[in-house]
Amino acid sequence: MLEVKTPAEVLAMIRTEFAPLPDRTELVPLAEALGRVLAEAVAAEEYVPDFDRSTVDGYACRAADTFGCSDAIPAILPVAGQVLMGEGADFELSRGECVYVPTGGAIPQGADCAVMIEYTEDYGDGTIGVMKPGAPGMNLIFRGDDVFPGKEILPAGRVLTAQDVGALAAIGRTTVPVARRLKVGVISTGDELVPPDAAPGPGQVRDVNSPLLTAMLTAFGAQPVNYGIVVDDEPLLRRKLETAARECDAVILSGGSSVGVKDAACRIIESMGKLLLHGIAVKPGKPTIMGKAGNKPLIGLPGHPVAACFVAQLFVLPLLGQLMGRNQEAYTVTAELTESLGANHGREQINACRLRREGDKLLAAPVRSKSGLITQLAGADGYFVISRDCEGLPKGAQVQVYLY
Amino acid sequence: MLEVKTPAEVLAMIRTEFAPLPDRTELVPLAEALGRVLAEAVAAEEYVPDFDRSTVDGYACRAADTFGCSDAIPAILPVAGQVLMGEGADFELSRGECVYVPTGGAIPQGADCAVMIEYTEDYGDGTIGVMKPGAPGMNLIFRGDDVFPGKEILPAGRVLTAQDVGALAAIGRTTVPVARRLKVGVISTGDELVPPDAAPGPGQVRDVNSPLLTAMLTAFGAQPVNYGIVVDDEPLLRRKLETAARECDAVILSGGSSVGVKDAACRIIESMGKLLLHGIAVKPGKPTIMGKAGNKPLIGLPGHPVAACFVAQLFVLPLLGQLMGRNQEAYTVTAELTESLGANHGREQINACRLRREGDKLLAAPVRSKSGLITQLAGADGYFVISRDCEGLPKGAQVQVYLY
Which of A75, A284, B21, B326 could connect to B37 by a Cys-Cys bridge, CB 3.0–4.6 Å? Predict the structure, then answer.
């Protein structure tokens, strides 16, 4: 019999038992790369900018020709022409001359600074006066100042932001190698379940886990495949699980609150590969099963949607992230607990909470409800964890909230 | 001439000048509701659960029949039958009897508690012994404990999480009223711009703002419409802006770094409706124009992608959120600055940063680069704001980071 593991043990087990999928890379157009996981590091292949540019509207010249000038004694320079936006500056500036350049315009050979137009005066006779001395490099961006060939722009595993998409556009990367969206089978079990669009009869409840897990997987960037509701029947469950495992990269089973169904799920998973885990010391979420067929995770979540949600968040998404080679960093928001909260379980305890601002403070109101479902899910902004050795938190305690 | 406004003044102006769109609601299937903005508050229309349920595997009975029992002197109760999952319990329990109920099973009339199976012994003769006294309500969830008809589940304006989707499934809401995705026109201007998939010639650069803004709008839940690159030509720009304004709910123009183009954009916006703003006291991002044609925002962003990105994040997305009736709360992550940072501008200063963990600490490394583009966008995790009256921040200062 497998023992109940602590959350840290489960995460360590996931790291050793599952490897990133070898065939996970696919190429997508840049326009579809937002939110995807970068499969390989991206390096620049060219210089950005590709030419020396001015950062101001003004005159490109040699700084030395302006040394010592002032409002009283301007440096007088003949204007040799102007640089147009979008065109090169393929001429060489002679000593003592200047050219007009717009912001972003190319700087001709021979010039080593740009003087802002505000510090010049146009005498109307083909010359200008410069009132403030320049310095070499002033108001210029040099070729490759931003990036140069070979410079790493983005690391593998990064979840691409809109800003990353902009940067990829800037270096002309219009096709991006990303981890494909994993296909994840979702199966709900339970004789009491009816689909969400059905009216539950006596003793029946709606299947919440399928839409919940489907939405969580979608938000994570996976591709959920719904296998519907299976009644508590071992041969039927086995066929469904085997089909889902054949068609998907991972399978999540939820429900089966009765001991018989849990044992059946264990037997099926064991026969398909290896049972890795039977129970996690976390509240809620203890009755969790984890196994694998080859590198394919087979997971049995608790039937209660709140428990299923937390276990999916804490363990299943990190596992899928690992298969995708995804950066697993999760940031938390610090908030102040609005009321004291007991925890005396010897198990890590997960609490959903609602956030609200009061003046400068961000407050976290723990969601309390007797095995509640809607009230624990709807309107919650995130969750925090109370460690197993903590007997509870006082009102005003700082908690680290993971946002949904 | 309009004056330069502070960021707070701009946000206040947005609140008074733009109203939520009256025709913004559309109905979508629950499976497509993730990430959408709820257009109306949702209240439950039924009881959840709809029947009294057990939270344990065990026996439903009257608590009074177990008072005073113990391991030594069990309460002996005849088992009148069992409740099956997914079926009602439409019989009344007689005094002194019990029935077997699985976790989640219905509780028959007459029973007022459920005793965990672990505290009972099956004598095999149709009776069980209860070793631990029950109490009324013990291990039960009553009808409507979670929600009842009329109880508000989710407020209008909420961006729906996966957990909200689960809650909506639980109350049978399979169609959800959400704000439609706003159509937002994106136009880049500049003679120097080429599309990202083109190789820039001398003096040319790739158009970064179109893919950047498109991705930002997509991530925000809007529907970007790309109108391509327009050269610096007033009649052409006017035609493009008018077309985009006719076809979209809002238009974002970016670039036009030359004074002439900016003046042209102001003239065009003024003639189409009203010019509201010419310049924001924020660095980077000062040369921002904002106007409206009716309730349709017409926005001119700076040409530099980093400035365009910050202005879009700080002002354009909140404006679009207001048209959609979206909850505007933004949470920040607290991090420690890795190096001191100057700011001496009399303008609010926005800094991109990268986050990394070091032991227990979360560190924010400001991205520094001379008017850089890729290095300021790629790989940044978010940004923080230095207020206008602050002259800089020392190494180790706590900053509030808005995540991308």
Answer: B326
Q: What is the pLDDT of residues A79-105, one digit of tens each?
A: 999 999 888 998 899 999 999 999 889
- Mutation target vs B (from A327, A331, A358, A384; most B CBs, 10 A cutoff): A331
Q: Which residues pair with B120 in a beta bridge?
A: B130
Tell me which residue of A338, A386, A342, A330 sits closest to A362, measured CA to CA: A338
Residues of B whose CB is below 8 A from A215: 34, 161-162, 165-166
Question: What is the torsional sign of CA B51, B54, B59, B62?
Answer: negative
CATH 2.170.190.11 fits B53-141, yes or no: yes
- B7-24+180-324 folds as Molybdenum Cofactor Biosythetic Enzyme; Chain A (3.40.980)
Model pTM score: 0.93
Query: Taking chain B, what is the end-to-end CA distance rounded to the nearest angstrom?
Result: 35
Measure in Å the smallest separation between the Cα of B17 and chain A Cα atoms: 25
Looking at domain A25-48+146-179, does it have CATH number 3.30.1330.30?
A: no
Among the partner-chain residues A171, A334, A370, the one whose CB lies closest to the CB of B334 is A334
ipTM: 0.92
- What is the tens place of the pLDDT at every residue in A169-193? 999 999 999 999 999 999 999 999 9
* CATH superfamily for domain A7-24+181-324: MoaB/Mog-like domain (3.40.980.10)
Superfamily designation of domain B332-403? MoeA, C-terminal, domain IV (2.40.340.10)
